[in-house]
Amino acid sequence: MVKKELIVSALENGTVIDHIASKEVFRVLHLLNLEKCEETVYMGSNLESQKLGRKGIIKVANRYFAPEELNKIALVSPNATVIEIRNFEVVKKTKVELPSQVKGIVKCMNPNCITNHETIETNFNVVSGDEVKLKCHFCEKFTTKDNMEFC
Amino acid sequence: MKNKNLISITDFSKEEQLHLLDVAEEFAKNPRQRILADKVVATLFFEPSTRTRLSFESAANQLGARIIGFSDASNSSVTKGETLKDTILMVSNYADLIVMRHPREGSARYASEVAKVPVINAGDGANQHPTQCLLDLYSIRKTQGRLDKLDIAFVGDLKYGRTVHSLAQALCNFDCTFHFVSPAELKMPSYVKQTVKDHHLEYHQYTELSDVIPFADIIYMTRVQRERFADPMEYERVKNSCILNKAMLKGCKESMKILHPLPRVNEIATDVDNTPYAYYFQQAHNGVFVRQALMSLILGAKE
Ligand SMILES: [Zn+2]
Asked: Which end of chain B is less crowded, N or C, counting CB atoms within 10 A of the terminal residue's CB?
């Protein structure tokens, strides 16, 4: 708990993404396109967490994200929380939410799907349940969290 | 249904499906109606399927429509490397309706979103083949007088057989009881069984075809392919459990009918062909009426 406070308070302005599933930190970095971020980005994985056992955390200085961007995180880490920091203070704390439709982020796992053979933006309907399942709008096959690859 | 696409059987509501079957019945009584004489139908077969193509083309011909297209992408003017989008856009300029078959799953849905004219899916890889499903529904209703409260047995490769998946899901609208007969390796996938449950209907699973013969109203046969088995010994062991012959039919319901999407190999012995239960050849013929109804409705020649 002390550790978490330290990480959060160390940020003057920016976003903290907390309670990321530990293995998914790198995919979350990718989903938010943070490989190309010019600001300071801190990340931690395998941190101790009361809620998850182990968790990951990412903090990005001087950046705020649109809900559509943040909700992509729910595809791999539905328990993640997002904290906005302004002037060392927490101004907003939200949970990520699974979108009902996912366009152009995820690849269809079906190798014979037309989207893997022509330049077509992928499009999935999100089927909610215990496990995140994406139903391809085109081939109607399911892509699950375990076989999810990003475009 | 004017200007609608038919990519997946669920694109049509239960009411639309039933209406289409009614119109198909009219065509069965009076198949030569030149109501599409001013229309051009394109049949684009990016992979060959002579049976399906001839059925569509016969249906279009009997309606007086003109037909353009190709039967195999490899020897057609569709040059290698041309995108599906470009081909569909080009053909949209020349035809009022596109019927397409393509080896990739999702190709028909994509084409329907690119095309300026309606698209009928005549098979997209292992995904959907909705006119097969409609002709199956037609054949069941024709032989049983109804679609409700029937005991329907599906036999053979239920894991990979797209026709049985679509048909089982379509029949969930009609209060049927499902009997799934297959080798253990080729069981009906869970998403289909879940659809059955979601409709509060019953399904039962079997490994022996003889178990369902006494009570089935419809026995829907499919082929079990050797290639589906990782272990060839396993194939040898189970291959006869899903083969139907005349002797097995003793004690079946008098009104029972056997369907098969064809082509058959050996899963229905030829001695069944001359029994009153064999319906698979008429079933294929019904496909022409169903496709006539579909094209007439989509092109607005029938209401
Ligand atoms: Zn797909």
From this structure: C
Say how many CB pairs under 8 Å bridge A and B.
52
Q: How does DSSP assign A15-44, residue by residue?
A: EEEEEEEGGGHHHHHHHTTGGG--S-EEEE
Mean pLDDT lowest for which of A96-100, B97-101, B228-232, B280-284? B228-232
- Gap between the Cα atoms of A9 and A4, Å rounded: 8
pTM here is 0.90
Q: At what angle do helices B84-92 and B107-114 cross, to 10 degrees?
A: 50
Which 3 state secondary structure label does DSSP give A125? strand
Kindly give the pairing relationship between strand B151-155 and strand B218-221.
parallel
- pLDDT one-digit tens code per residue, A42-86: 999 898 888 778 999 999 999 999 988 898 899 889 889 999 999
Does A114 contact B at CB distance below 8 Å?
yes
C-beta of residue A110 within 8 angstroms of C-beta of residue A139 = yes
Q: How far is B160 from chain A (nearest CA, A)?
A: 13
Say if the Cβ atoms of B110 and A118 lie within 8 Å.
yes
Q: Directed axis angle between helix B280-298 and helix B50-62, to 10°? A: 50
What pLDDT, on a 0 to 100 scale, did the predictor assign at position A11?
Answer: 86
- Asked if B207 is an active-site residue, the reply is no
A113 touches B at CB < 8 Å: yes
- What ipTM does the predicted assembly reach? 0.91
Shortest CB distance from B127 goes to which of A117, A118, A139? Answer: A139
Place of tokens 């239920």: B158
Q: Which residue of A has its CA nearest to B125?
A: A112
User: Residues of chain A with pLDDT > 70: what percent?
Assistant: 93
Rounded CA separation B82/B80 (Å): 6
- How far apart, in whole angstroms, are the C-alpha atoms of residue B28 and residue B22? 10
Task: Answer positive or negative: Cα dihedral of B169, B171, B173, B178.
Answer: negative
Looking at residue A68, its pLDDT comes to 86
Query: How many angstroms separate the CA atoms of B43 and B239, rounded?
Result: 36
% helix, strand, coil for chain A, step of 5: 25, 40, 35
Of A113, A119, A120, the CB nearest to B105: A113
Query: How far, in Å, CA of B245 to CA of B269, rounded?
Result: 5
